[in-house]
Amino acid sequence: MLVTDFWAAYNAVARAKKQKCLPHLLRDLKRTTKYHAPGGDWPAFAKRSKRLIRDAPRSQRRRPELSAAAFASRRNRLQTRLNRLVNGPWEQKHARRLVKRLRRHRDELPTFLDVSGVPADNNYAEREIRPAVVMRKNSYGNGSGEGALTQSVLMSVFRTLKRRGHDPIATVVAALKTRLRTGKLPPLPANIAAQR
How many whole angstroms separate alpha carbon 12 and alpha carbon 37? Predict the structure, then answer.
């Protein structure tokens, strides 16, 4: 399962199932309205899109209180609304741009409704990379390609250690001491967090 935004590079990843981030669509709608002030049929398109994008997670949250038949009915109505939206005769250029995206990813928008445990957003992934982004910003970026590679490796090691319940600095220092003493790096420490 791959939950992502709409960056085109993800299209090349072969997976059985994908989920596209619904909040990214909402942000794009809001940004377009704010910065481009499109007229024509844009307001109607934006309103219908926002309603659909907000109703889908709302239906998922209500799933426990609905019968299987009632949820299936809601799911079918959402799909019908999506189909009508992407097949509408939209003329405004920004509406056509987003319709093209919705058509391309039509099957990847409601995956969270069909597969238990799949989120409708990629917030978890974005929270996980946030420390590396903040570090890069605070250090005014990387001075070279080698610096960028070094930072990406170190951040990967640090985040992995932290996720496994270890103090990253202490663990790396201990590993370097072992390397200096024995000439070999120790194996990656066990996942303490999973044992709790």
Answer: 33
Per-residue pLDDT reduced to its tens digit, 47-95: 999 999 999 999 999 999 999 999 999 999 999 999 999 999 999 999 9
Consecutive H or E run containing 167: none
Nearest by Cα to 164 from 190, 134, 128: 190
57 with 76, same domain: the answer is yes
* Residues 125-134: b if buried by 16+ CB within 10 A, e if exposed: eeeeeeebee
- Give the residue among 187, 188, 19 at the shortest CA–CA distance from 106: 19
One domain, residues 131 and 190: yes
Same domain, 135 and 186: yes
Which of these, 75, 70, 69, 67, lies nearest to 112 by C-alpha position? 75
| Domain that includes residue 131, residue range | 123-195
Number of domains the chain contains? 2
Q: Are residues 98 and 130 in the same domain?
A: no
- What's the CA gap between 79 and 119, in Å, rounded? 18
Residue 33 has pLDDT above 70, yes or no: yes
| pLDDT per residue as tens digits for the range 111-149 | 999 999 999 999 888 888 888 788 778 877 777 888 888
pLDDT at 196 over 80: no
| Locus of tokens 């590993």 | 175
The reply to whether 92 and 134 lie within a common domain is no
18 and 95 share one domain: yes
